Each structure stands twice: as structure tokens, then as C-alpha cells.
Amino acid sequence: MLVLNATYEPIHVCGVRRATVLLLKEKAEVIEAGLGELRAERTALARPAVIRLRTYAPVPRHGRRRLTRRAVFARDDWSCQYCGSRGDLTVDHVIPRSKGGSSEWENIVACCAPCNRRKADRLPHQARMFPRRSPRPPHPSVFIQVACPRVPDSWHAWLGQAA
């Protein structure tokens, strides 16, 4: 289930059980129903596809979200930022950690293993290898796509251009 904040901003993906608890505790409301319904002994609920929290929940803004390999790959469209290859991906520090580079969104890109070996422990200008796009914190919907690689059609209206 896609979880929207009170402001209709997509913030999370949760399972059916968690969505049902939020609905039963009246902490969320169904925005779009899925196919079928959830049944209990004395009640039945429409199966939610998209729910919205009734009160605003503060969420980490750009750059404060946890940096993971899958999120870096998703941000970089699952392709090497040096040659465009889509196979054998790893991550590369644009400025190597040994040269003072940090492990932050602005310094890490998706990179294929051959390019990573070729760049080695050198700065971009030394290796003559520059990322196709400058690394930056990802759009929040990237984390939705990492959590649920097959985005249901009913979510596209809520995820905007990044879906």
C-alpha cells in the first residue's frame, strides 16, 4: 500500500497488515481502493491501494534519507554514470575516500565494475572520467520505487513525474 502524508505527499510503502491497523485505529483513510476486500469475523473493509494519514508526519527531506546501494542505483536509473552500461553495477566515490571524499549522496554514483576498476583510486580529472550527471540527493519517490519495484498503476497519479 502506498502511504500518503496528510499533505498528499507519498512517504512510504507498507504491507496490508500495517495499512489495516492504521485504518482501524482511524489514523489513516482510504484514498484509492484496490481489488477485493479485507474480511474479519464482524467487519469488512475495502482493500486499500493508497491510504492517507489523517495527521501530518514529519519526514526526512532530501539528503537526510539513508544512503543505500539500491537507492543510488534507482536514482541513477540503474546505469553506469561513466559509460552508460546497465550490467555488473557497483557504487563509486567520485572523489575517493582516500582523497577526502565522503560517503554522501553528492559523492556517490552507480558505476559498472570495469569503469570502477579503470577509475581506481583517482580523482575524476586524473582518470579523465566524469559522471554523466552530477550526483545529488534523490527525489523522495525513488525510495518508493526501491521499496516496491513494480509500481501499481493506481500509484502513478500520486508519485508524479518520477513514477
From TrEMBL:
Pfam families: HNH. It comes from the Bacteria. Gene3D superfamilies: 1.10.30.50. InterPro entries: HNH (IPR002711), HNH_nuc (IPR003615), NA-targeting_endonuclease (IPR052892). One of its GO terms (molecular function) is endonuclease activity. Residues 67-117 form the HNH nuclease domain. Keywords: Endonuclease, Hydrolase, Nuclease. This is HNH endonuclease. It comes from Patulibacter brassicae. The lineage of its organism: Bacteria, Bacillati, Actinomycetota, Thermoleophilia, Solirubrobacterales.
